[in-house]
Amino acid sequence: MSRKHIPDQRTYAFHQKAAEILRGSPQRLSEVNDVLLNWKTMSGTQAEGWAGKWQELIDGLSAAEVAELICQEGEEMDFYRKSSPFACLLSDEERVEIIRRFKFDHE
How far apart are CA 31 and CA 45, in angstroms? Predict the structure, then answer.
């Protein structure tokens, strides 16, 4: 099994934390939906396009189902995680802790 690059591992860790938050506080999915609504107002931008893609993925899913989805491994979800509305769920401290954990150490 090939090892993922550090940025991919870090992005996956961000989403694992976001999934944990959603499982503990399902109502916070509304924050993600607010981000998507904001992105949709950015007409003609990549954000607008990503909003549509993410909305298609999570429409009709419960917070638990969304948590499961964002932690799925594979190329498709790796692609989606590169531009994700779930960052809004993490505190600055949680982000910094994950960044520190995956800081690339040049040998």
Answer: 21
Q: How many CB atoms lie within 10 A of CB 56?
A: 8
Give 37-53 as a 3 state SS string: HHHHCCCCCHHHHHHHH
Provide the token pair at 14. 């961000």
Task: State how far the Cα of 10 lies from the Cα of 107, in Å rounded to an integer.
Answer: 19
- Averaged in consecutive runs of 10 residues, what is the pLDDT profile of the chain (107 residues)? 63 96 98 97 94 96 98 92 94 92 58
pTM above 0.70, yes or no: yes
Residues 23-43 as b/e (b if ≥16 CB within 10 A, e otherwise) read eeeeeebebbeebbeebeeee
Query: Rounded to an integer, what distance in angstroms lies between the CA atom of residue 25 and that of residue 89?
Result: 10
SS3 for 87? helix
* Residue 29 · residue 63 · CB < 8 Å: yes
Residue 23 to residue 67: CA distance in whole angstroms: 7
Cα(35)–Cα(30) distance, integer angstroms: 9
